[in-house]
Amino acid sequence: MIQVTYDCNLACRHCSYGDLTLRPEVKLEEVQVFLKLHKPRIIKISGGEPTISSEFGEVVRLCKATGAKVISFTNGTGHPLIDPDAYWVSLYGTRGWHQSITRSRTYNNVLEFIENHKVEYLCSPVFSEKQILSLNIKSTNLGIPMRITRLLPHGLASGVLSLEQQREILLRNHLVDYPNVATCSLGFAPFKCKNKACLKPDGQVIVCTSMARGTSLCPFFKEVNK
Fold first, then answer.
1. Which residues contact 126 (CB under 8 A, 6 or more apart)?
2. Using CA of residue 158, residue 164, residue 168, residue 170, what is the dihedral sign?
3. Domain residues of the chain, as ranges?
4. What order do you get walking across the sheet with 2-3 strand by strand?
């Protein structure tokens, strides 16, 4: 994963990136070194909001030149000049839910982005049963599968349901059978993170070392919880 920036143009109620005052952007030389060292087969680009970074297009170009599949997370409000192979778009349900969670009026912008770009998944944490069911309806209407982000309730994300509550809702509504439900070692099943690494905007590289179910050994969450 390459986290190109901490900067974001939204202030979603569960996310701190929009409130950060220090906003470095990843250096292209660091991206080149990272790609050469790790030789990834799948590269995910994230932020903040990656598509508003001045380096987004060049990072996409460098990543695609490796022959790897390139995916970018996005809130669907940017206007990228160069596209990765696919986007994973943050969509939190129907208009009311999405605009309440993002604290913005960007719902139509996101739908327009989805219409004009290749979108592989619609991504969202579970805030409530009604919210995730509204996303399921939207997912069905758009013909794009959901990807549940098992976000831990901490900090600004305290409004997200506990992992056990999320699990109960997903099971009760038969949503856990999605083959694309995202998990990690802090969720309900170990996520095989061997050889996975994240280049952060300040040049730090974090390698996930947590392989045990239900533990808090993940360096990313250690950093978040400081």
1. 132, 148, 160, 161, 165, 166, 169, 170
2. positive
3. 2-224
4. 146-148, 119-124, 86-90, 69-74, 42-46, 2-3, 197-199, 205-207
Which has the minimum average pLDDT: 44-48, 110-114, 148-152, 153-157? 153-157
| Cα(210)–Cα(52) distance, integer angstroms | 31
**What is the greatest pairwise CA distance in the chain?**
48
State whether CATH 3.30.110.70 applies to domain 2-224: no
What's the full length of the chain, in residues? Answer: 226
Task: Please state the pTM of the whole predicted model.
Answer: 0.84
Long-range CB pairs of 31-37, under 8 A, 24+ apart, other chains included = 31/2, 31/59, 31/62, 31/63, 31/199, 32/62, 34/2, 34/197, 34/199, 34/205, 35/62, 35/63, 35/66
